[in-house]
Design brief:
Length: about 375
């Protein structure tokens, strides 16, 4: 056969195998009752599936992982979440040193008895990995793939029996992919979900949240920074954020104390009931550990405010975008806008004082650092 004849020969078509390989038969499902769902944390975190915990830096994300790991070992948490599945807990902490781990465990176990300590020693494994190459997903011309470390991580997790919880911190250290790529972020989420499915554990990955989520009035899903694909690939997303100025006012917490409080809230939780999305307030206590916060809503008096009062308040907000005005400057600006009136300067001053009193009672303003100055309570979040 000549070269031309060989060239004209039809190219054989490769055999095509059906995919997926199973036939999709549903008869077994219809003939039996479905088994009860297996939860790690009842009605919040599924066993054998992945979740993400997101928040800005310093929001106590790593501390929360430690608490969940101890919950898997001991069967309880400091706050009112029910642990359904106990067993071994594994923590892979890419930003922690051995000293960090030592201090964290000393704080967590300080008040525990001998029986609890023995369980922790037997069932908790912590891997501080700061300074090591922890990338699990390599990038080949824009395509991610699992490298030998990823396969080794799965093998490490499968080497332990009855793994109930796996915590990995942070996501950004694990992949050579683009944080803004939906495809790369989804691949990372799928890898963590595969790890959870193969081990039967709840696998939680720590991500960094968008800056806007820290001060948003309404919390929504896809709070993780970069591509939202990572949230789509897992079964639950929880946001951890510090109390905002507005929330501090609503709960009667002084501005200086609000950093002690963090809110843990589900923004996505597949198969969970609606009450799982109720925010949980936690307080940073001794050694930075998290405890249930005792907070109550303070009765607000905004209903007493007139439309003029609100315009006076808006004027202060505008002025504070450049500098904090003294009370007299604020009053004069309001007079210029026709918001503060009176038959004399003394009358105008008294009118302004009454408006300021109502704004203080409503929690919309607070006294500034300089005598005779005021600032909006939420200025740092609205300017």
């Amino acid at each position: 056969m000549t070269a031309l004849e060989r060239h004209l020969q039809p190219v054989p078509t490769p055999a095509v195998e059906p995919w997926p390989k199973h036939d999709g038969d549903v008869s077994a499902y219809l003939a039996t009752d479905p088994p009860p769902r297996k939860w790690f944390v009842h009605n919040r975190l599924l066993a054998g599936r992945a979740a993400v915990l997101t928040g800005i830096g310093g929001a106590s994300k790593t501390t929360t992982l430690y608490h969940l790991a101890l919950g898997a070992v001991l069967g309880r948490l400091p706050w009112d979440w029910q642990i359904d599945t106990t067993g071994t807990a594994l923590l892979f902490l890419a930003e922690d040193t051995t000293d960090d781990t030592h201090h964290a465990l000393a704080a967590l176990c300080e008040d525990l008895g001998d029986e609890d300590r023995a369980l922790i020693e037997a069932r908790l494994r912590v891997f501080p990995l700061a300074g090591e190459d922890v990338r699990l997903l390599s990038n080949d011309g824009g395509t991610l793939y699992e490298n030998p470390r990823a396969l080794g991580l799965i093998a490490r997790c499968e080497s332990y029996q009855d793994v109930a919880f796996i915590g990995i911190d942070p996501a950004l250290a694990l992949s050579e992919g683009d944080e803004l790529s939906q495809a790369h972020q989804r691949y990372l989420g799928q890898f963590i979900d595969k790890l959870a499915i193969q081990t039967g554990a709840c696998a939680m990955l720590v991500t960094h949240s968008t800056k806007a989520s820290a001060t948003a009035d309404e919390i929504t899903s896809h709070a993780s920074r970069g591509g939202g694909g990572i949230t789509d690939a897992v079964r639950a997303e929880f946001l951890l954020r510090t109390m905002t100025g507005k929330e501090a006012t609503a709960h009667g917490v002084s501005g200086g104390d609000r950093k002690r409080y963090v809110q843990l809230v589900a923004t996505k939780a597949n198969k969970a009931p609606l009450d799982a999305f109720s925010p949980l307030w936690l307080e940073r206590g001794r050694n930075g550990l998290l405890y249930p916060a005792e907070l109550a809503l303070v009765e607000r008096q905004e209903s007493r405010l007139t439309m003029t009062d609100r315009r006076v308040y808006d004027t202060l907000r505008e002025m504070c975008k450049t500098s904090v005005p003294m009370r007299q400057e604020w009053r004069l600006e309001c007079q210029k806008r026709g918001l503060v009136t009176g038959s004399s300067e003394d009358a105008k001053t008294k009118t302004m004082q009454r408006v300021i009193g109502r704004l203080l009672d409503a929690g919309l303003i607070q006294r500034g650092s300089a005598r005779g100055s005021y600032i909006p309570t939420y200025q740092d979040e609205t300017a």
